[in-house]
């Protein structure tokens, strides 16, 4: 569970968490010490909810556990915990992230605007897009 990058629960897992894990005197009702993502993982495990592999078919992460600047770095000195606590070995560089990434850890609002600009608004000359974003209508 990577709380910084977020997590997704199925309806069944959420139902089990709310109705089995969190009521008074239930396995997850006591506040534990430590990071919320680790506590969430322990709670879910205690009520029988198992994590799944969310990587894509090339074993690239969809939930990116580090800030993007660190994903493109091979220097673990900034995050010495990462190579020892990740279930799967993290990939770095351009092979770090799925083409269908869901969320990134450590994205501040200014960086989010920048990513939005690069992904949805800036169109490099010569690249043919199958979908024309200008045809999207956000008005109801």
TrEMBL record:
> Coiled coil where?
none
Q: How does it sit in the membrane?
A: Single-pass type II membrane protein
What InterPro entries does the record point to? C1GALT1/C1GALT1_chp1
Where is it predominantly found? membrane
Record key words, sorted: Membrane, Signal-anchor, Transmembrane, Transmembrane helix
* Keyword Zinc part of the UniProt annotation: no
List locations, semicolon-separated.
Membrane
- Family statement: Belongs to the glycosyltransferase 31 family. Beta3-Gal-T subfamily.
- Report what the protein is called: Glycoprotein-N-acetylgalactosamine 3-beta-galactosyltransferase 1
Q: What is the lineage of its organism?
A: Eukaryota, Metazoa, Ecdysozoa, Arthropoda, Hexapoda
């Amino acid at each position: 569970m990577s709380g910084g990058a977020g997590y997704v629960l199925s309806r069944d897992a959420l139902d089990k968490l709310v109705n089995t894990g969190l009521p008074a005197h239930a396995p997850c009702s006591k506040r534990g010490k430590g990071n919320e993502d680790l506590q969430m993982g322990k709670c879910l495990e205690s009520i029988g909810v198992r994590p799944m592999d969310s990587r894509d078919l090339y074993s690239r992460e969809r939930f990116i556990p580090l800030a993007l600047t660190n994903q493109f770095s091979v220097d673990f000195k900034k995050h010495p915990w990462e190579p020892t606590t990740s279930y799967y070995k993290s990939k770095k560089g351009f092979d770090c992230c799925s083409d269908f990434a869901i969320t990134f850890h450590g994205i501040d609002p200014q960086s989010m605007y920048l990513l939005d600009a690069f992904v949805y608004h800036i169109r490099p000359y010569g690249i043919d897009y199958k979908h024309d974003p200008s045809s999207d209508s956000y008005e109801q």
